[in-house]
Amino acid sequence: xxxxxxxxxxxxxxxxxxxxQARLPLLDTMTLTQRNVYIxxxxxxxxxxxxxxxxxxxxxxxxxxxGYLLTFLLAGQVAPVMLLPDGxxxxxxxxxxxxxxxxxxxxxxxxxxGVELWQGLALKACWLALALLLFALVWRA
Length: 141
Known about the structure:
Blueprint: H1 2-6, H2 8-23, H3 43-62, H4 65-76, H5 86-94, H6 102-109, H7 114-140
Helix pairs in contact: 3-4
């Protein structure tokens, strides 16, 4: 208790270290789950957040629809899909947004092969056909 009176920072640091070590005991192997994967903000993350905030405020103040589009597009590209619950992750995988950025990068990196590659290309083609159909309907209206 005397340490807490004379060195409060050392006391708090020691309590935090004991809590952290009790939370994550040392093991030879570890299964990654939502409870032990941490996404810590970095300088680039803070800069992205500040940029998104400025874009959103500008889009709100000047009522720019393209500003909203750019803000939400950039914000949607940094969402960690692997940390979402199963039902939402499945919906996010089927929606076309994954096939705009993530899927081509995964193909180029060689992470997607075989049947999964052809399924992804077929789903991307279906979304493209649906978009073209909707554009044709809207154009004629």
